Amino acid sequence: MSEPVLDRSVRSPNFRRFWIGQSVSFLGSEVSLLALPLIAVVTLNADATQMGILTALGYLPFLLIGLQAGVWVDRMRRRQILVWSDLATAVLLLTLPAAALMGVLRIEQMYVLALLIGAIEVVSSVAHQSFLPSLVERRELPAANARLEGSSSVATIAGPSVAGVLVQLLTAPIAVLIDAVSFIVSALVLRSVRVEEPPPLPPDESVGMRAQVSEGLHHVVRHRLLRPLFSCGATHNFFRRMIEALFVLYVVNQLGLDPVALGLVLAAGGPGALLGAAVALPLAQRIGLGRTIVWMQVLTGISCFAAPLAGGPPWLTIAILAAGQFLLGVARPVFNISQLSLRQAITPDRLQGRVNATMRFIMWGVTPFGALVGGLLGSAIGLRPTLLLAAVGVLLAFVWIAASPVRALVTVPDAAEG
Questions:
Q1: Residue 146 domain-assigned?
Q2: Distance from CA of residue 117 to its chain's centroid?
Q3: Would you put residue 171 in left (φ > 0), alpha (ψ -120 to 50) or beta?
Q4: 279: domain range?
Q5: Three-state secondary structure along the chain?
Q6: I need a labelling partner for 286 at 20 to 30 A (CA). Which of 15, 249, 384, 388 fits?
Q7: Number of folded domains in the chain?
Q8: Is residue 417 situated within a structural domain?
Q9: pTM exceeding the 0.70 threshold for the entire prediction
């Protein structure tokens, strides 16, 4: 993909508004990414099992409504879904600092919030991925995705460090207010996007929800390129969620880092992600799309060993954890840009919602189990051994891609394949 293509996608007024709205939301979400688990660990004294449950509930909706979300997205205007999803998420987030200020915040409320926000995320993420091909041409998808990943990277740099300071000075519940405001701003910006979307799929009485879900599921499972992608993604997500469920608990309680240090560690992923978003396109051009996907999964696995290997003086602990976050930051944008652009390009417009939903249902549907297994194993055998086991699992996920036709791909297809 050439630089002029990248410039065209950025200069599109509708894409620019979409990009701005998502960028604002990215920043707020990065603040909550640190603040929410800190509320559970520091304010509510959650243990490993409770952290596992909290993380699992956030991903449970991928199993409950993951497939149906694709049909809903294909039946509705995707921009409207994104706007209402942002507003609903903002309202839910505002209940958390309100409860904290009234002194009635409990872990059960966080469970409910995790489940509801997770349900909204399932629908909005499918709409997001399905809406982008309406804003740019298919050959511009890698460039557009790279810009979005770049914004996410900037948010990853600023968000955790800002969150660490806010949590230290104002408490974690107050920090969540920033995320709520960011979703409101994002909704207002997205309302200004004016684009001709593909006509929504009519609710054909002769073709029910089950048949439409089945069509998307069969398309994904039988596709020679999509099948290894979701197999790798599911393996990766299962073991990564084991790490995610325990990471804050491990870093705060076992390694002894405070919220500011934890924020700095997480922020180290930002420069890496910015670098990854910048090199994704030239790297794929140089070594090929398939090999890029394979090697970025390998690099992701290597980065996960930083947590179980961290220790020693505080400066060394922070350095090891930060190095792991940096490597993870480099790998994931490149992997995401490459596989998502491939997925969007080979999927017909009428199936975009269902294919994206099915992929996410499979890849993210395993995450509640990963989080629960992580929490239970953390309580049974200890946090460090569990993190080490999970790192091995993330690393081995690359085999699905390396042994498939995806590895031989050089570029993203220019047109959708049926």
A1: yes
A2: 13
A3: left
A4: 3-192+210-408
A5: CCHHHHHHHHHCHHHHHHHHHHHHHHHHHHHHHHHHHHHHHHHCCCCHHHHHHHHHHHHHHHHHCHHHHHHHHHHCCHHHHHHHHHHHHHHHHHHHHHHHHHCCCCHHHHHHHHHHHHHHHHHHHHHHHHHHHHHCCHHHHHHHHHHHHHHHHHHHHHHHHHHHHHHHHHCHHHHHHHHHHHHHHHHHHHHCCCCCCCCCCCCCCCCCHHHHHHHHHHHHHHCCCHHHHHHHHHHHHHHHHHHHHHHHHHHHHHCCCCHHHHHHHHHCHHHHHHHHHHHHHHHHHHHCHHHHHHHHHHHHHHHCCHHHHCCCCHHHHHHHHHHHHHHHHHHHHHHHHHHHHHHHHCCCHHHHHHHHHHHHHHHHHCHHHHHHHHHHHHHHHCHHHHHHHHHHHHHHCCHHHHCCHHHHCCCCCCCCCC
A6: 15
A7: 1
A8: no
A9: yes
Both tokens of 107, joined, read 């872990």
Q: pLDDT tens track of the chain, all 418 residues?
A: 444 444 555 567 888 888 888 888 777 777 776 777 878 887 888 888 888 888 888 888 888 888 788 778 877 788 888 899 899 989 999 998 898 888 888 999 989 988 998 888 888 877 877 788 778 777 777 778 778 877 776 776 666 667 777 777 777 777 788 778 888 998 998 888 887 766 666 655 445 667 777 887 888 888 889 999 999 999 999 999 999 889 988 998 899 888 788 888 887 887 888 898 889 889 988 999 999 999 999 999 999 999 999 988 989 999 999 999 999 989 988 998 888 888 888 887 777 778 877 888 888 888 889 988 998 999 899 999 999 999 999 999 999 999 999 998 888 765 444 4
Residue 235 lies inside a defined structural domain of this protein: yes
| CATH code assigned at 84 | 1.20.1250.20
Round the CA-based radius of gyration of the chain to a whole number and report it: 20
